[in-house]
Amino acid sequence: MKILVCLKQVPHQDARLDIDAAGTWIKEDNIKFEINSYDTYALEEALRIKDAGEAEVVVTSIGPDRVTQALRTALGMGADRAVHVKDAEIDGSDALGVAKVLAAVAKEESPDLVLMGLMSDDSNASAVGPMIAELMGVPNASSVMKVELADGKVTCERELEGGALEVVELQTPCVLAVQSGLNQVRYASLKGIMAAKKKPIDVKGAGDIGLSGQVGAGAAKTTIDKIYPPPKGEGAELIEGSTGEVVEKLVGKIKELGLL
Amino acid sequence: MGSILIVAEVQNGSIREASYELASFAQKLGREVHSLVIGSGVAGEAEAFAKKGGGTVHLVDAEAAANYNVDVYAAAIKAAVAATSPDAVLISNTPTGWDVAPRIAAAQDCGFVSDAFDVAEEGGSLVFKRRVFNGKLDAQITASGPVVATMQPGGTAPFEGTTDGSVSALEADLSGAKSAFVEVKVAEAKGVDLSKAEIIVSGGRGVGEPEKFPEVIQPLADALGGAMGASRPVVDAGWLPHEYQVGSSGQIVTPKLYIAAGISGAIQHLVGMKGSNFVIAINKDPDAPIFEVADVGVVADLFEVVPALTEAVSAAKG
Ligand SMILES: Cc1cc2nc3c(=O)[nH]c(=O)nc-3n(C[C@H](O)[C@H](O)[C@H](O)COP(=O)(O)OP(=O)(O)OC[C@H]3O[C@@H](n4cnc5c(N)ncnc54)[C@H](O)[C@@H]3O)c2cc1C
Q1: Can you give the residue range of the structural domain that contains A146?
Q2: DSSP readout, B71-136?
Q3: CB within 6 Å of ligand 1 — which residues?
Q4: CATH (residue range B199-316)
Q5: Of the four listed, A57, A173, A221, B17, which is most buried by Cβ atoms within 10 Å?
Q6: How far, in Å, from the CA of B198 to the mean position of ligand 1?
Q7: Tens of pLDDT along A138-151?
Q8: Nearest CA to CA, how far is A154 from chain B (Å)?
Q9: Radius of gyration in angstroms for the set of CA atoms belonging to chain A, rounded to a whole number
Q10: DSSP letter string, B28-62
């Protein structure tokens, strides 16, 4: 059993979001990065499958040098090796460009399972999982809350609205985009981090995976014109002052509502 | 200008409201409108959709489509795309939409935009607006050519007018699925039913530690005679069971008073509580989106405000 986990390194959830000079993304210098939260659940699930039997867990990520940190963390948690796709040519790719790169990596690795998070915490697009599946010609399931393997088949529970779950059975290979809360994600142990130093990170460019000239800003079919703070509506009436004053006013409001 | 293809979604035998919202978007763009209705025994629904904004409806009515299956839906949508060559395919951003829509964009090698709350035409291109960074920023995206887009439910009002439409059967090869629907498990009723609570005090990721829920959030809920709720990350982390979760994948609540402490206000949370009569938000980030839906906001550390408020409420009750 071989599992490929796709990880995205994203700005830390509590990072300051300042818009860059071009107005099309945030300033990425001087902020902390982390593995996309949804992807950590995918990695954990792969590691649990490995712990329960025989599996090789390969992690892959696209991005500049800083991405090495995310891959090292994943190796420290227990992944066996990493593929880092690093190429300025890929910069500015849209979701489909990213999916093409990941599908090319998957083609080289030919895993039984491809796992990733349902979406990324930065662009929130929920796009690449099903796209990779289409490019590979395999089935997919997203919002996955449970994974069971038996007899070459994968049985998943997909989260629907309001807490309902849909049970679906997929042939392997398949692509699963997992939902947060699927499991409790482990931390890398000190021993794991030490062991990770000896694990290989294979660095590849677009040409190495046969995609030179096919991805990147030039090939993108959608472009971000601008990003901006959401327009403010009327908004809340802000209550200011010392904690004592604030609390007094809040109690006043609750009394007005007839709830005190 | 090319046409728009709407993929309508059948849920429990009828076309869901979100599909009528897609009809609103499509009609607003003033293009020729086609729709795909997939399901089993849904001819009547297709007729209704054709008369209410759906335009020329292509119907795939088959036993194989009785339940959602990604392979079957992808095959039907591809057949509809081949038959109509649309400039844009619109699908609702629902568990069905986000499972299948990106596949269609990959198959067509065209643009993809997800979870957009608005679309307009500018200089012949479609321009979308959507949230990024979990609601903290907005983005405007232009598709340079054909595009598949998932649209946020609630992004616009459902289409209300009457239109001339027609329904015809669409041939689609639905065989060869590599996945199969097994069953849907509906959510079981749990101990905490927040949908009936008059007052709810919810804590989010900003509460920081599991112990702080019994220590800080629950006491305010108790003092007010209300119930405690939470955002999803709190439940994901195992700090509280799922029955406390408010939002699109938790409970939809409509209390008289909803207090959100350490909750940023992501759309999936707002969906669950925006029907509250009065909302107080406590968050240390003045730009948190929760302040847009709150009636009263306090920009402060919840660990200062909440315990003090608990004390003041208890004192007021005497
Ligand atoms: C398909 C899907 C379904 C989902 N369903 C749900 C759902 O049902 N319910 C739900 O809630 N989410 C849901 N989500 C997740 C949602 O997108 C957000 O990730 C989540 O709501 C964020 O929770 P939060 O506001 O607690 O955390 P964050 O967004 O991390 O916000 C934490 C907030 O706490 C503030 N804060 C930190 N410390 C303090 C302090 N000391 N004092 C005051 N403020 C502080 C911060 O400023 C920040 O605004 C869903 C997501 C998906 C993709």
Answers
A1: 2-219
A2: HHHHHHHHHHHHHH--SEEEEESSHHHHHHHHHHHHHHT-EEEEEEEEEEEETTEEEEEEEEGGGT
A3: A 13, 118-119, 143; B 134, 204-206, 231-233, 245-250, 262-264, 266, 268-269, 272, 282-285, 288, 301-303
A4: 3.40.50.1220
A5: A57
A6: 22
A7: 999 999 999 999 98
A8: 9
A9: 21
A10: HHTS-EEEEEEESS-HHHHHHHIIIII-EEEEEE-
**Is A231 a domain residue?**
no
- Pairing mode, strands B4-8 and A165-171: unpaired
Whether A134 maps to a domain, the answer reads: yes
The Cα–Cα gap between A211 and A229 comes to 35
Specify if A85 maps to a domain: yes
For residue B130, pLDDT beyond 80: yes
Residue with tokens 């200062």: B304
Q: For residue A168, how far is its CA from the centre of ligand 1 (angstroms)?
A: 29
- Which of A27, A101, A124 to substitute to test the interface with B, most B CBs within 10 Å? A124
* Cβ pair B258, B279 in contact under 8 A: yes
How far, rounded to the nearest angstrom, does the alpha carbon of residue B54 sit from its chain's CA centroid?
21
Q: Is residue A171 part of a domain?
A: yes
**Quick check: do B3-169 and B199-316 share a fold?**
yes
Q: Is the CB of B103 less than 8 angstroms away from the CB of A130? A: yes
Summary mean pLDDT of chain A: 96
How many structural domains does chain A have?
A: 1
Q: How remote is the CA of residue B268 from the centroid of ligand 1, in Å?
A: 9
Residue B281's pLDDT is 98
**Where are chain B's structural domains?**
3-169, 199-316
B198 vs A contacts (CB less than 8 Å): 259
pLDDT for the residue numbered A85: 98
Distance CA A34, CA A15 (A): 10
Output the domain CATH number for residue A207.
3.40.50.620
> For the segment B172-214, what is each residue's pLDDT rounded down to a tens digit?
999 999 999 999 999 777 777 898 999 999 999 999 999 999 9
- Contact by Cβ (8 Å): B68, B96: yes
Could you give the CA distance from residue B8 to residue B23 in angstroms, rounded to a whole number? 9
Q: Is A8 on the interface with B (CB under 8 A)?
A: no
